[in-house]
Amino acid sequence: MRHTRSRRHRILLASGAMLAVAGLLTACTPGETDPAAGGSGGASSDAGTPASPEAAKPGEKVTIGFSGPAADHGWMGAINSAALKSAKGFSDVELVVAEGTNDASLQISQIETFINNKVDAIVMLPTDGAALTDVAIKAMQAGIPVVNVDREFSSNFAARTTVLGDNYGMGVSAGTYICNELGGKKDAVVAEIAGIDSLPLTQDRSRGFKEALGDCGLTVSNRVAADFTVQGGEAATSQLLASAPKLDAVWNHDDDQGIGVLAAITAANRNEFFMVGGAGSKNAMESIKAGDSVLRATVIYPSTQAADGIAMARLIALGLPATDFVTQGVPNRVVLDAPVVTKENVDTYIGAAFDS
Where does the signal sequence lie (predicted)? Predict the structure, then answer.
């Protein structure tokens, strides 16, 4: 019973977070976010259409500076494009976009330019949260609200609002799905193909996965780490398959590296197990829908975090509330949901998926 209660507790926590955020997103995100209506728990194929009458009311023109990542990864490219589409949905927003970069020094100079130009708000996905903390604090001290996306700063004083995907929740969702699919098979061999092990997000995903599996009496029998690239996914998976002659289930943290993961599985002619992906790419969902590989499900990590950040930055700059909340203002921290996409519900989510 202890395991059952613990597992139910985590699922309820995740569901509660999803419900809390859903009210906010209805009020201040462009586009419909209800999965039943075609969204994806934070991802929306209609990004760019304001949803709330009050949030949609044009106000005084505001200038928002956006600094995002280099689009060297399908998910990263989707972050940038969704942010631009979000801004276009508001007639009172002028978006100033810095060149996408993975260079912390360049990004610091971009934010300093935004500060010097006295923009009304800044939305930033930092290439390194700790490295960008000081310049974000500088912006806040200059009276410019900062919306922090995906990778957290190392100080609470660096951002007015933080928008995050749920990395721990991804692991919980993947582990819970695998537990349910294996139906109490206590001797099941479960493997994990992680991303970059030094990143806190990878550590959080692995921790959630381990704990969810533990609640049904399973452990991670084999684990390798890749680097979020196709090549890294293929190499790590080849290593995994060589050391594990039999598997029952595999969780791969990232659908972009999953292209290489599936290539290695095909090359090894292995199909005795099923796999769960991560992030929610379009090609992964198409494979799930077609049933043409071992990939049976994927866990969404929303690529619309910056789009939500633009919408919230607008509300903050204009002094508008998140209207579906009783409290005034915009919450200072939003964690988006990590739903599992399967063949049964893939049509609900695929319209908002990103291309790997």
Answer: 1-27
Q: Give the H or E element holding residue 62.
A: strand 62-67
With tokens 């819970």, the residue in question is 176
CB 158 within 8 A of CB 332: no
**128/253 Cα distance (integer angstroms):** 20
Residue 294 has pLDDT above 50, yes or no: yes
CA angle 128, 132, 136 (to 5 degrees): 145
CA distances 249 to 185, 281, 287, Å, are 11, 20, 17
Residue-wise pLDDT tens digits, 322-332: 877 777 789 99
The predicted-structure confidence for 104-142, as pLDDT tens digits, reads as follows 999 999 999 999 999 999 999 999 999 999 999 999 999
Contact 250, 193 (CB under 8 A): yes
Question: Domains in the chain, ordered, with CATH?
Answer: 2-166+303-337 (3.40.50.2300), 167-300 (3.40.50.2300)
Phi, psi of 158 (to 5 degrees): -90, -10
- pLDDT digit string (tens) for 138-185? 999 999 999 999 999 999 999 999 999 999 999 999 999 999 999 879
